[in-house]
Every structure is written in C-alpha cells, then in structure tokens.
C-alpha cells in the first residue's frame, strides 16, 4: 500500500515471480543444476535449462526481497512494534514450523524411499529427520525449512527492522529521513559496482561459491553467494518506502533498464556457445549485478506503466500468491513423480509439469485458504 491506493502493479509482479519460482523448481528435475532436488529424471536432461536457472537466480529472489522490504515500514507504522512482531510470527513462523515438522520431512521421505532404501515413515522421521540415530549424528534437518528459507529470512529481517525502529524511536525520536524524488544514474551504477565487488569477494576470497548452503548462527538457512543481493535489496526496499523513491524508479523511461539487464545475459549466452564457459562467465559476479539491477528496475517500471490494474482473476492470484509460494514444492514434486515413468523426453515433461503445476498450486492455495483461520496465516 502507498497511502490509500493499492499498488496493483506490485501485486501483479509478485504473481509473475511466483510463476517463475514454480517453473524454476519444475526445471530442477529435468535440467542441469548444481543443487539437489526431490525427484530426478532418469534420462538425459535438458542442458539449456541451466540458462533458465542462471537467469532466474540472478534477480528474482532479490526482487522478492525488495518488494517485501518495501512493505515493512508501512506495516510497522500501522501496527506498532508488538503487533508487528506478533503478525510476522503468525504469518512467517507458523508456515516455518509446518515446513520443518511436516511438509519437508514428508517430501524428503518420498525421496529417501525412492532413491535410498525402503523404510517406514516413523523410523525415517525419528532416525533421519530428527537425527536421533544411534550414531548420534547431527543432521540439522530439524532446522531445514527447504524453500521456505526465504520466509525465514523475512522473519529475521522483520525482527531486526522492528528492533532498529524501536531503538531509533527511543534514542532519536525527532530523526527524519529525507525524501528522494529522483534516483540518480551514478547512484545506480555505484550500487551495481558495490554489489558486484562484495558478491565476488563472497564467492571467492570468503569461500562461498554458488549452491553452498549453510546454517548461519546454527539456524538461519542461507546461500551466502546471494546474500549481498538479497540483504541489500531488502534494505533498498525499506528506503524506497521511507524516502519515497519508488515512483522515480518505476517511471516509464526506466523500462529501458531491461536492455542492459537482459543484454548482458544474452551476450553471456552467445559467448557460452561460441567460445567456452570460462570466457562466457568471466567477471560474472559483476555481470550478474548489472543483470539483477537492470531487470529489477526494468520490471518495476514495466509493470507500473502497463500492469497497474487488477481484475477478478488476477486479484484471486494475488491473494493466493503467498500461500502458493509456501505449498508449491509438494505439488510440483507430486506431479513430477506422477509422470514417472513416462515415454516423454525431459523437455516435454518440463513443459507439461510446468503447465499443470501453476494452476494446480494456485487451486490448492485457494482451497487451503478457505479453511477457517488460514487467511490469517496465508
């Protein structure tokens, strides 16, 4: 919300991003990826899907963090610290508990019995998920929220934001934040350079390459390779609201930021097929920073210019977008297993499962939210 008018273009953009997340996770089973997935296609995989993973991972979760960060200040202003925290614990904490104790162990169990060995669910849950095996190994599964790592981060960031706002209200009650009506080009270029440099250091000197996940402080699930992007965009989202510069970022002319954003990716693809992988991805961390910034600004401007409206269908999709993110993986995995074995190639299955998953996930979300009390959570 901004004032009393709903920002429909942000709702619509979130729906698009949810579509991309679903398609991205469908592709995990059929394309080349550095990460693990719950179903593995037994035949030859689609190598070109790797490009989809690279492109998506370069910006779409970062844009989610920007949009989420944008709405934190207004929520805090409306509710105050105590109700703000309570609301976030309900909206984020309950899905996290559901994922840790039920959703993720069920999905992991299906994977285990299909690819490791037959075992009863109770035995799997106690010995392998909770880690109460005789050898005493610490599996960390009890803290594994799967794809809800994003929700965990939002909960952590929300608590930190509430703490900072509370401290500032007590220590500097008269502090005012200046309005920024226009975001200068040099500021955007400085951000791109800084993001590229810190990301590069994170992935090289500091030892956190792509797809290396850790439990920061023992419980915060994260991929440090993308943390500079996620954290900075969440903070920028907060300042976009506080400094009122979202309107400046989303002006029609900024649609042109899609040109360098998508362009640097297309150049990389051409180099990949015409030279070699090392040459194509040379200085990739800086290229990714440009891609991320260009696509984020460009999409914000594009949706503000052409899609700042709603209708009954898009309204239903927007209302169910958060629930769709929470429950989409079980739906996707169920569809992937349902087509195994299938006399179809990996790409055909990728398309079929994607086309079925998107409506399936949103329909399931719609039904779940009909349960009394679920709209308070989802």
Task: Annotate the secondary structure layout.
Layout: H1 8-27, H2 49-57, H3 60-115, H4 121-129, H5 149-171, H6 185-203, E1 214-216, E2 220-222, H7 227-242, H8 246-249, H9 258-274, H10 277-280, H11 284-306, H12 312-319, H13 321-338, H14 346-368, H15 374-377
Antiparallel strand pairs: 1-2
Helix pairs in contact: 1-2, 1-3, 1-11, 1-12, 1-13, 1-14, 3-5, 3-7, 6-7, 6-11, 9-11, 13-14
Kindly describe this structure.
There is one protein chain. This protein is mainly alpha-helical. The protein contains 15 helices and two strands. It has helices at about 10-25, 50-55, 60-115, 120-130, 150-170, 185-205, 225-240, 245-250, 260-275, 275-280, 285-305, 310-320, 320-340, 345-370, 375; strands at about 215, 220. The protein has a two-stranded antiparallel ribbon. A hairpin with a 3-residue loop joins strand 1 and strand 2 (about 220).
């Amino acid at each position: 919300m901004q004032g009393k008018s709903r920002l429909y273009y942000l709702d619509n953009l979130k729906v698009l991003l949810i579509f991309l997340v679903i398609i991205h996770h469908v592709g995990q089973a059929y394309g080349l990826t550095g990460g693990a997935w719950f179903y593995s296609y037994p035949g030859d995989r689609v190598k070109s899907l790797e490009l989809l993973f690279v492109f998506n991972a370069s910006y779409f979760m970062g844009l989610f963090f920007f949009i989420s960060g944008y709405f934190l200040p207004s929520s805090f202003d409306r509710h105050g610290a105590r109700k703000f925290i309570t609301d976030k614990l309900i909206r984020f904490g309950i899905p996290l508990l559901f994922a840790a104790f039920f959703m993720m162990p069920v999905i992991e169990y299906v994977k285990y019995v299909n690819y490791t060995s037959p075992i009863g669910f109770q035995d799997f849950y106690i010995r392998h998920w909770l880690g109460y095996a005789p050898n005493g190994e610490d599996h960390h599964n009890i803290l594994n929220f799967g794809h809800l790592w994003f929700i965990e981060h939002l909960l952590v960031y929300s608590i930190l934001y509430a703490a900072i706002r509370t401290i500032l209200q007590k220590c500097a009650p008269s502090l005012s934040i200046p309005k920024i009506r226009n975001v200068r080009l040099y500021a955007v270029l400085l951000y791109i350079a800084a993001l590229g440099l810190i990301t590069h250091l994170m992935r090289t000197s500091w030892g956190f390459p792509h797809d290396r996940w850790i439990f920061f402080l023992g419980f915060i699930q994260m991929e440090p390779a993308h943390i500079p992007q996620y954290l900075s965009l969440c903070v920028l989202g907060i300042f976009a609201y506080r400094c009122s510069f979202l309107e400046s970022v989303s002006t029609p002319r900024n649609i042109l930021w899609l040109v360098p954003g998508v362009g640097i990716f297309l150049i990389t693809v051409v180099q990949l097929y015409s030279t070699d992988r090392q040459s194509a991805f040379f200085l990739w961390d800086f290229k990714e920073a440009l891609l991320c910034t260009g696509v984020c600004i460009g999409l914000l401007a594009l949706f503000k210019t052409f899609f700042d409206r709603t209708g009954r269908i898009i309204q239903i999709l927007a209302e169910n977008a958060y629930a769709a993110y929470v429950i989409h993986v079980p739906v996707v995995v169920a569809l992937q297993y349902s087509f195994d074995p299938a006399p179809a190639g990996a790409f055909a299955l990728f398309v079929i499962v994607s086309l079925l998953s998107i409506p399936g996930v949103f329909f399931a979300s719609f039904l779940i939210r009909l349960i009394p009390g679920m709209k308070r959570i989802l």
